[in-house]
Design goal:
single chain; 7-stranded antiparallel β-sheet; conserved putative lor/sdh protein from methanococcus maripaludis s2 fold; Elongation Factor Tu (Ef-tu), domain 3; 6-stranded antiparallel beta barrel; alpha+beta; OB fold (Dihydrolipoamide Acetyltransferase, E2P)
Length: 353
């Protein structure tokens, strides 16, 4: 109990650093520390990481409408592949009927204004009117035209195209149903509605994942993410090529960074393993015991004239008690391969005598 308390106090009072640790040959012998030189590797250093094929939130098509609606019928399901222009949902809206009435009223007012303007022009030609009267009438027509454009804009915003608006004006028949059409080819990612639902303006109706925007999301420890660069070539374990596109600057609470990669022939929701290049120097092979873990990072101890110095490395696959690493090493460096636990204790101020 006393020893544990002393060790805890030592940790609390010590600030670990990357400075050289002074160790005498006598201490090395007493601690049983042994050194060995790393074995160079010609192959590219890479680490396989699980990745998920998905779409960045900024590239999702989240479909909403600026009016209250009722869901009449669904023509698709979540997870379904849809083509651009495909019918997704049929809706009904009381607001739409009001907007359609507003359009017809604005159209009638504009046409009436145009008719009056033409009569004023003829009267002006006959000397029965004045230029100021024509100017006032033209201003009234301009205002009526703006009101008409605004009414058309509201219906376009609600999902009506030019052909449907013209049909309303010509037939004077108001249809308050709406058809939600897929703006892109993709996967129905979210469909949080059911027939009979009454929804407020702006509610989410359908969210699509565009096929051309599907990317691989990889969540990496910060120490590994900072070894990557945008545009770097990668490869999936199954042989497909990939390339880093976005490296987030945000670090999560579990010390992870999100990296997005582009890759051909991805299916949303597909889970794959991607090999990411993680070289900060050459690649080397060391005994597994040579690598210690601290602060969510991997370290080795390199021998110096007066002791050892901790060096951060990137750890790769391990096999037969050997591990692949990448870091600031040379072939003639002496690396501690036995007694690393004692060195870690000295490094962190826990003793080691």
């Amino acid at each position: 109990m006393r020893m544990s308390l002393l060790l805890g106090l030592s940790l609390a009072c010590y600030s670990w650093s990357l400075d050289e640790l002074s160790i005498t040959p006598k201490q090395i012998g007493r601690l049983g520390i042994e050194f060995s030189q790393p074995e160079p590797l010609d192959e590219q250093f890479s680490v396989p990481w699980p990745a998920l094929a998905m779409v960045m939130p900024a590239n999702e098509f989240r479909m909403t409408l600026p009016l209250e609606i009722m869901v009449e019928k669904l023509f698709v399901n979540e997870g379904q592949l849809v083509e651009k222009g495909q019918l997704l949902v049929q809706l009904d809206s009381r607001d739409l009927r009001l907007w359609a009435n507003d359009l017809l009223s604005a159209y009638d007012e504009y046409m009436q204004c145009e008719e009056i303007t033409n009569r004023v022009k003829k009267r002006l030609e006959l000397g029965l009117s004045t230029a100021s009267e024509l100017s006032r009438q033209q201003k009234e027509c301009a205002k009526a035209g703006n009101d008409l454009d605004s009414a058309k804009g509201s219906l376009k915003h609600a999902g009506w195209d030019k052909k449907k608006i013209e049909a309303l004006i010509n037939t004077r028949q108001i249809n308050d149903s709406l058809e939600l059409i897929a703006p892109v080819s993709g996967i129905v990612y979210r469909l949080p509605i059911m027939p009979g639902n009454h929804l407020e303006s702006g509610a989410e109706l359908v969210t699509l994942w565009p096929l051309e925007q599907v990317k691989l999301q990889v969540r990496l420890p910060l120490s590994k993410a900072r070894q990557l660069s945008v545009g770097q070539n990668c490869a999936l374990v199954d042989g497909r090529s990939a390339k880093t596109e976005v490296i987030s600057r945000l670090v999560s609470k579990d010390n992870r960074v999100t990296v997005w990669l582009t890759c051909d022939n991805l299916t949303p929701g597909e889970r794959v393993n991607v090999r990411l290049p993680m070289s900060v120097g050459s690649s080397w092979l060391l005994p597994t015991k040579a690598v210690v873990r601290h602060d969510h990072r991997d370290w080795i101890f390199k021998k110096t004239p007066n002791g050892v110095i901790p060096v951060e490395v990137l750890r790769g696959p391990a096999k037969k008690r050997m591990v692949q690493v990448s870091g600031d090493l040379n072939a003639d460096n002496d690396i501690a391969v036995i007694g690393t636990a004692a060195l870690k204790g000295l490094w962190l101020g826990l003793g080691g005598e």
